[in-house]
Amino acid sequence: MEIKFNILEGFEWAPSPHPAADDFPGWWKEMKNYVPQEEPTEQVPTGTVKICSPFESALGAGYMLPLPFAVSVTCDKKGAATMRWNSPVGMDTWQLIGAHSNEQIPEAGMGLEEGTPFKFQLPYSITLPEGYRALYTHPLNRYDLPFSSFSGVLDAGYDSPVNIPFLWLGEDQTCFVDAGTPVCQVIPFKLEEWEHSSASLSMSALMEDSRVATGFVHGYRRKFAKKQVWR
Fold first, then answer.
1. Is the pLDDT of residue 210 over 80?
2. From CA 102, how far away is CA 211, in angstroms rounded?
3. Are 115 and 103 a contacting pair, CB within 8 Å?
4. H or E segment and range at residue 147
5. Are residues 116 and 100 in contact, defined by beta-carbon separation less than 8 angstroms?
6. Among 44, 52, 95, residue whose Cα is nearest residue 71
7. By the 8 A CB rule, do 117 and 166 touch?
């Protein structure tokens, strides 16, 4: 299967959408596989998320839409944020970040009482094969980012750029978000009809896969994980 990323004419210089596996964060790369032990012990060392295959697979799933150029954000003590950026020559009319009215989201109940809503207006669109959809979501497991992008599902056939609503979560200070920062993770999947069922299962049967996964070094990775290729 092939997913095609279309870049608006004039933005060929900007960072391009790319596989999420090419954009693992620095904290992941620097993290150790096991929790450091102060003294030698016969106990099996405790693994960190660095060796958790499901966690790693989420980080590297699909593709990233990057911020095309740098943004400076100033947030006051009341939570109001002001965003500025220097538009490249010839791009003065491009509104990289737009306002997102508070009236467009619930006043209460959705958990969005804090944070300022905006929307990224990126110069990218995608073309999907017929019969496929794409999940647009905040970069998975990226709680280090000072914003939280909303999630949505887009069907094949819509090839125009998609605005990415987000909440600014930064503190009352000036924050610099560099060009290339991932703002949205795009994960394509096949459009299929599903049915669900429920069944009773004994505790031993329910925990069997867990026993296999934890009873071996890298048990889940060795016994269950299947490599997914995103190019």
1. no
2. 48
3. no
4. strand 147-149
5. no
6. 95
7. yes
Question: Which structural domains are found in the chain, ordered by start?
Answer: 4-35+45-192 (2.70.40.10)
Cα-flanking dihedrals φ and ψ of residue 14, to 5°?
-75, 160
* Alpha-carbon dihedral sign for residues 59, 64, 68, 72: negative
The predicted pLDDT at position 205 comes to 79
Strands, DSSP E only, in 3-129?
4-7, 18-19, 63-66, 71-75, 81-84, 97-99, 116-120, 124-127
What's the pLDDT tens digit per position in 47-90?
A: 888 888 899 999 999 999 999 989 998 877 666 778 888 776 66
Which residues are within 8 A (CB) of 212 and not within 5 positions of it... i.e. 6 or more apart?
Answer: 219, 223
CA distance 59 to 29: 12
Rounded to the nearest 5 degrees, what angle is found at the Cα of 64, between the Cα atoms of 61 and 67? Answer: 160
Nearest alpha-carbon partner for 185 in 3, 26, 8: 3
Q: What is the pLDDT of residue 115?
A: 63
